[in-house]
């Protein structure tokens, strides 16, 4: 347990060093009245002033109340159309803060949201009237080169993980956007530019430390609490707040070959026909998404590929040759690039000015009928940006048994995502209606969905999406969270 003590102590020291003085934070935790809140089933309750003050005083981190500038920042998620107001926000520094917050929420049956990177499209990492645990003050990564292990605090972002591991020539699968939270990505699956080569993020987990609904800190690995370890790898945030992740690392050169190759949108059918076969035959060290971009008004619409080749540099030209044969692109940024820079290339530094809506589903095959629907469904609009993307799967992901972890969707060739965005000043309802109609025509080609991207589905659909793993997941859920404290997720519950 020395490793965990080191991690938590180092994290607390780092955050404490950044705080200018305890007096500066006192105003954030001054509770002047009883707090109106809601329970997990949205019943209104009132929490006495003294109890909230006692919780605030027990924390080394912050308890933020409405009206404070830090509260306004913490309650927000990246999807600007989500505008929810927790009763208060906890920003923990150490594991004890998280335990105190979980115990408080359980004892009062409060609705509880947990935020890491805030990338939940549906806004599950914030809430109205409940407690939000904001892990933005709980970030740290340490690398042990001897065991090739990264020890990562639960609130860390992928960019820190990439930066620290690549600095010593090691790496693990870590998404495609550097400000994504490690926790949300990993617990639901963890696709990324290296997943076809090294497996999903959750396939690289060696252990977690997790505060479960009873407020206990548990270590879960193949040898300790193995049922919980199985469940957190694909069961999302259903079982508690993960305070530490232990990731297996792999040697890899720092320089990869990556970038975009774009063609006119008129080539979309040709590209999709090509990709329907190439998605199955590409080598494991090539990650290749195909996408179509329809900006507002439809002008400058393009389609093409986003690639990352992490194999031997001298083989890159031969691996990418099939794509090059499709014709002369109008944009070609594919070149040797630092892997960490490539991981940051899709970052959105100011995403909160737009509303977003997304539909996604796993695709095992890309038949002609699906291609027909996608090509026919594009409708330009002056006020929305629309993206259709096939995120490359397969490779090492598919060589893991569907019941080896709670993540069951091992046979997919790609994850089909349909995403649109609009300026917040504009009514988003017509755009959402458009995407729902578009999705109704392609959903029949999907086989389940990625829980990190889809939520608020009917309970029966959520349960069926866990496929053959649902029964076992329900047993783990009832053991570690019998009152369903952690419910703002792809919730595991009897249907």
How would you describe what is shown here?
The protein is of the alpha+beta class and 495 residues long. It has three domains: 2-137, Uridine Diphospho-n-acetylenolpyruvylglucosamine Reductase, domain 2; 146-252 and 476-480, Uridine Diphospho-n-acetylenolpyruvylglucosamine Reductase, domain 3 (2-Layer Sandwich), CATH 3.30.465.10; 255-445, 3-Layer(aba) Sandwich (Vanillyl-alcohol Oxidase, Chain A, domain 3), CATH 3.40.462. The protein is 30% helix and 24% strand. It has helices at residues 2-18, 22-26, 49-58, 69-75, 95-107, 158-166, 182-188, 195-198, 226-232, 268-281, 316-324, 339-344, 368-377, 429-442, 459-465, 470-480; strands at 35-38, 44-47, 62-64, 88-91, 112-115, 131-134, 141-144, 149-153, 170-171, 205-211, 217-221, 241-248, 250-251, 255-264, 286-294, 302-309, 331-332, 335-338, 354-363, 385-392, 414-423. Strands 14, 15, 16, 17, 18, 19, 20 and 21 form an eight-stranded antiparallel beta sheet that branches. β7 and β8 form a beta hairpin. α10 (268-281) packs antiparallel against α13 (368-377). It is globular. 50% of the residues are buried. Mean pLDDT is 92; it is low at 1-27.
SSE diagram, text form:
Layout: H1 2-18, H2 22-26, E1 35-38, E2 44-47, H3 49-58, E3 62-64, H4 69-75, E4 88-91, H5 95-107, E5 112-115, E6 131-134, E7 141-144, E8 149-153, H6 158-166, E9 170-171, H7 182-188, H8 195-198, E10 205-211, E11 217-221, H9 226-232, E12 241-248, E13 250-251, E14 255-264, H10 268-281, E15 286-294, E16 302-309, H11 316-324, E17 331-332, E18 335-338, H12 339-344, E19 354-363, H13 368-377, E20 385-392, E21 414-423, H14 429-442, H15 459-465, H16 470-480
Parallel strand pairs: 4-6, 5-6
Antiparallel strand pairs: 1-2, 3-4, 7-8, 8-12, 9-13, 10-11, 10-12, 14-16, 14-17, 14-18, 15-16, 15-20, 19-21, 20-21
Helix pairs in contact: 10-13
């Amino acid at each position: 347990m020395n490793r965990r003590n080191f991690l938590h102590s180092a994290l607390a020291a780092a955050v404490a060093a950044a705080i200018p003085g305890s007096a500066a934070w006192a105003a954030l935790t001054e509770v002047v009245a009883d707090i109106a809140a809601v329970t997990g089933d949205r019943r209104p309750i009132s929490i006495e002033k003294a109890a909230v003050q006692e919780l605030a005083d027990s924390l080394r981190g912050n308890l933020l109340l409405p009206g404070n500038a830090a509260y306004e920042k913490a309650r927000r998620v990246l999807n600007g159309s989500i505008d929810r107001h927790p009763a208060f926000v906890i920003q923990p520094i150490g594991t004890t803060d998280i335990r105190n917050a979980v115990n408080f929420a359980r004892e009062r049956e409060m609705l509880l949201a947990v935020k890491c990177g805030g990338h939940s499209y549906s806004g599950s990492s914030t809430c109205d009237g409940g407690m939000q645990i904001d892990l933005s003050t709980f970030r740290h990564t340490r690398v042990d080169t001897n065991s090739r292990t990264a020890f990562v605090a639960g609130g860390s972002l992928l960019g820190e993980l990439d930066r620290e591991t690549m600095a010593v020539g090691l790496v693990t699968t870590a998404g495609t956007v550097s400000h994504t939270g490690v926790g949300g990505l990993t617990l639901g699956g963890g696709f990324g530019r290296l997943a076809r080569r090294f497996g999903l993020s959750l396939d690289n987990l060696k252990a977690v430390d997790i505060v479960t609904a009873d407020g206990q800190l548990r270590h879960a690995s193949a040898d300790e609490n193995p049922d919980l370890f199985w469940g957190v790898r694909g069961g999302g945030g259903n079982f508690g707040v993960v305070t530490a992740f232990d990731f297996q690392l792999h040697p890899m050169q720092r320089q990869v070959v990556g970038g975009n190759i774009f063609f006119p949108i008129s080539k979309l059918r040709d590209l999709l026909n090509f990709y329907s076969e190439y998605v199955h035959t590409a080598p494991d060290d090539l990650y290749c998404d195909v996408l179509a971009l329809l900006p507002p008004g439809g002008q400058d619409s393009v389609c093409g590929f986003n690639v990352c080749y992490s194999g031997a540099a001298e083989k890159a030209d031969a691996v990418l040759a099939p794509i090059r044969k499709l014709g002369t692109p109008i944009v070609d940024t594919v070149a040797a690039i630092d892997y960490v820079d490539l991981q940051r290339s899709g970052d959105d530094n100011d995403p909160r000015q737009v509303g977003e809506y997304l539909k996604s589903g796993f695709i095992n095959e890309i038949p002609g009928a699906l291609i027909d629907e996608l090509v026919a469904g594009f409708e330009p609009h002056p006020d929305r940006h629309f993206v259709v993307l096939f995120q490359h799967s397969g490779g090492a992901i598919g060589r893991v048994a569907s019941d080896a972890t709670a993540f069951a969707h091992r046979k997919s060739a790609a994850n089909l995502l349909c995403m649109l965005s609009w300026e917040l000043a504009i009514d988003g309802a017509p755009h959402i209606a458009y995407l729902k109609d578009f999705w109704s025509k392609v959903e029949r080609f999907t086989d389940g969905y990625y829980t990190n991207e889809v939520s608020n589905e009917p309970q029966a659909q959520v349960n069926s999406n866990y496929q053959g793993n649902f029964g076992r997941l329900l047993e783990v859920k009832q053991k570690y969270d019998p009152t369903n404290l952690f419910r703002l997720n792809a919730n595991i519950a009897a249907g």
